Amino acid sequence: MEGIIEKQKENNINQKILALAIFGVVSAVVLIVLANLSISTSSGIRSYVAAEAVWAKAQKESIIHLTNYVYTEEEEDYQNFLKVLRIVNGYKQARLEFQSNEIDHTKAAKSLEKGLTHEDDIPQMIFLMQYFSWMEGIQNALHTWEKADQKIEEVKHFAAELRDSINAANTKANKVQRDNWSEELERLDHELTDLELDFSGTMGSLSRDVAVFLRWVSVILSLLILMIGIFLAIWFLRSTEKWALSLEKTETKFRNVLDNSRDLIYKLNLQDRSYEFISTAAKNLFGYEPEEVMKEGIKFVEARTHPDDMENIKEILAEYDSETGENFRNKIEFRFKTKSGEYRWFSNTRTLLRDEQGKPVGLVGNARDITEKKQQETELQKSLEEKELLLQEIHHRVKNNLAIISSLLELQKYSVDENVQKILSNSQSRIKSIAKVHEKLYESSTLSQVNLGEYIEELVDEIRMAYESEEKDIEIIIETDHITMEVNQAIYCGLVFNELINNAYKHAFTDRKKGIIKISARENNEETQIEVANNGVELPKDYDPTTTNSLGMTLVEVLSQKYNGTLNIESGEWTRFTITFEKE
Q1: Is it the case that residue 30 has pLDDT exceeding 80?
Q2: In this structure, how many other beta carbons lie within 10 angstroms of the beta carbon of residue 226?
Q3: What is the CATH code of the structural domain delimited by 261-369?
């Protein structure tokens, strides 16, 4: 009877274990499915964001080609515009397929390929649309996509009309017509940009919503599995033999992971500098058996480190003598000589092991071959240096070409009357202010930003030399914040300063031998304020820069409006011209 009861208990326990095991397998399968679903969904969303970048790049290039066509009227620019739009058309075909009642995977894939979508991203993109198109975020994204395609049709229609207009005309379009066409293209481009940002924002929001949902599902399932794990732990404590067997299996699995890892995993004893463990990856990475490495200890590494890296290695070895491990470096990179005699780059990531008193006693780490990564970094750095050199050469040539134009104007001055000479001199001064920006750019390390303070000082020096005489003593005071500007706004500021300073020299001190010109540039939050003031003669009370016949003041007014700036003029003891505008 007791035997029967024990047998029933054993069967009951086995049934519970079997039920728990089945539940655990089901939970694991659900987690795997959930993980795959999460990966596929996230990859799909990421792929659409990447595709949007490709679409946006193609759209921008099409606008650029069409703008070039406006000003060159060359058929090649128009054909380039149509060629770039093939990418956008590919995505349009894909969208139409996604909005159909039943998605044809082959057609959708071919359409996405036309849009230059990476072949690995296409399955996730189709998966997302096939199973999650009911979601509000997907619907919003498709709606934005559709509006963008409609806007592209507007661009194509405008391009066709533009081409007809150009082909029908006997002569090239005038500047006003070209500017109108260019403004229309700029408007279409801005509207497309807004749609692109809307699409990216929608996909980003969708990604976050999906991540939150899957996270909570994972938490709930993990808690269920945790509860099962607690129950199993209790049962394993009562079954020592089975626990020992499970531990042995786990150790075997761990050993398999170590033996099959591509990275070298090791453990180093800091007391005697010997390796207590070296994984079998040493054979693949170094060409040496683990036993050969363990036999020599840390001296094995010292003997084969590249001479240029030895000083760094010695510093690291000195750190091992530290009682606290305070300056311990978790990651190092160095070159190591393999058994074949080749030096290869390795990344060594380490973690300190401490005893009960907190003293470092050992470390564990893994070494990974990063030779290919280092080669790629070298090639990338070389490419960047070549591009920087090219940009420097471009700015240098622009500056030289502007200097040639200025010289041509100087030659022209000898064959015209005095009034025309003054006009040509003013044009030369403006050209020099622009050339000075490009000179500063090719001398700069950034190649895209100009130090406004240095630029103003050099510009003022050139203007001062043009007006310098023994009859008048004009003092110039310059006060500027540390301001860096993009090239377009730097040219704008240079032209404005050039006009205002030249005007001060010409008109403010006609009946005076001494005077002061104050030049300032200030930056406040998102605004920049530039000012030119002088203590010369006052302006007429009815002075209005919008009605003056002066080309210089007209230029100042136009440039102020270009950057949504405000021009303020004060006249009294000091005459001040102050312009405030938004910084790019």
Answers
A1: no
A2: 10
A3: 3.30.450.20
